[in-house]
Design a protein that fits this description.
alpha+beta, 4-stranded antiparallel sheet, 3 helices, about 35% helix
């Protein structure tokens, strides 16, 4: 049974255009969270407290990518990480849905010092 499950999971990843070692949807969500934490650390070092940060920065630190649906991942042209295409919902950290069903996001997904990170690519 385990062998059939692994084969089925591999087949689904191939159909989705993903390599076996490419990031999963959950790892992309975690990549966004890791980036937010890194940004928060840098902002706190610069401003001293969240209250002293500009309002736009405070708001950006509250945003979360959720319900990621991975379409494809391929090796990034730089050979560092992956170029992935995915959909997601944008939520605040309190669960409020800012925008649902954002489609065809292109992201450079790679491993950094804190784990997976995501850098969105402008179209």
């Amino acid at each position: 049974m385990m062998k059939k499950t692994i084969i089925a999971m591999f087949a689904l990843s191939v159909l989705a255009g993903c390599k076996a070692d490419s990031p999963t949807a959950a790892e992309i969500e975690q990549g966004y969270l890791n980036g937010i934490e890194a940004d928060k650390t840098a902002a706190l070092a610069q401003y001293g407290s969240i209250e002293d940060m500009p309002a736009g920065l405070q708001l950006s630190l509250k945003m979360r990518a959720r319900n990621v649906e991975l379409t494809s991942c391929e090796e990034h042209p730089t050979n560092v990480g992956y170029l992935c295409i995915y959909n997601f919902d944008l939520l605040r950290d309190d669960g409020f849905v800012v925008q649902a069903g954002i489609k065809d996001i292109r992201g450079h997904v790679f491993k950094g010092d804190v784990g997976w990170l995501v850098e969105e690519i402008a179209r």
